[in-house]
Amino acid sequence: MSIERVLWEQDATGLAELVHKGEISPRELVDAAIARAEATRTDINAIATPLYDAARARAKAIDRKQPLAGVPFALKDLGIGIKGVPIHGGSRIPAFTADFNSVMVERYLAAGLIPIATSTSPEHGLRLMTESARFGITRNPWNTGHTTGGSSGGSAALVAAGVVPAAHASDGGGSIRVPSACSGLVGLKTSRGRVPLTPLTSESWYGMVVDHAVSRSVRDTALLLDLTHGADPLSPYAAREPKGSFAAAAARDPGRLSLAVYRKSPLGLPISAETIEALDTAVALAREGGHTVEEIDLPYIGRDFIANFCKSVASAVAGMMRAEAKRVGRPVTGEVERATRVLGGLGEMLSAGEVYDAVQRLNATARQMIEDTARFDAVLMPIIAHPPLACGAMDPKGADELVENVLDKLHLTRLLRIKSFFGQLMDKSLWFTPWPAIHNVSGQPSIALPVHVTAGGLPLGIQAAGRPGDEETLLSLAAQMEKISGWLKRRAPLKVPG
Asked: What whole-number distance in Å separates Cα of residue 4 and Cα of residue 1?
């Protein structure tokens, strides 16, 4: 069997086992990943910066005793420091090149992972489709006419295309889970404080942003978390310590769990029949695993909650644009995309009092939800309301009727004065995926599960959200569902290696 085929069929854990046994070398894996990256590059357009020479050099010097020795990997082109590597954030603003590695990057390298590239993201991670003026459109390996989601869409595309078995990703409003749902992958949004963002930042978006990965398998997701979790001295807070290893949690039977399912759109907008079918599939898998499932409602997760989330993000974008202007020594409004510019401008319109009030209201709602769902081990709910959209479907060239309806439901009283601009900014995101931000606000972990493929051949995942700090239960449940469903064997049909 060719090395390319081995890379295609194995997950990261499996590849590392082959390296440990001496059956394959890190250099062979890296060369195969680079070859696969170049073979699919035009089709999926998921690479921001190739790191091929550095990867080959690292492969020569790797310690084969490291847990993931020699396994090819990709790092998202957003929100991290990689020594000597330009980070663009999907933007035409001059790239930031750090003279340090983020703590998380150091932990990846210490595990033996070999980054072969940085992966594309939309500008500053603000869209749930990975399309930017800087890098163009990133496409879904399952069907290149469709999106791989955002903002970790480049990472998801590289994993789904078989370039790497897992890749770094981040999530501030669904940016791990949406690409996973669109690309047939496992994607864990970790608990707040589980993986440090230091030293580049202490927190992002008022603590809503977390970093982890997208992967093919639950066991890879668990092992990567074992290798990267834990606060460092600069971390502002830390998630609850696990009872054991995350890998052990993924390997054990979850027992009989009490689960809930939440089916409604927070905005009362239509949900596709395919999404309901995917959710029903997840419920059926859970029941087959011996778990109880209760239907619930979350009536306070509605338009006011989403409006306050939008306000908090707008203020964060305004602050980011100020920081970027200071970094490059000039205003950057002319170098960012219109959606970013409008969102930043909207953030500047909000008073400090309005933003503080919005964040406090979000936190109050989050506390209520955590209390109300504490009796459940996990809550199943959708990630995306519709199958992966066609590329360009969120092109912000006007506020069409669909977005107007979304804005009417939001009741953004003061902000309705700039409704047309806000419509362009939202790019149908709320219509496409209103659920993920819930757990960014609450800080709870939530895992994307690739339970369904549509009649049109596109993946459509759902999520299971757990109690704060309890990734272990989610990983145990997810691994059981993976085993029952057989989804681990699914692969995108893009240029399968011989």
From this structure: 8
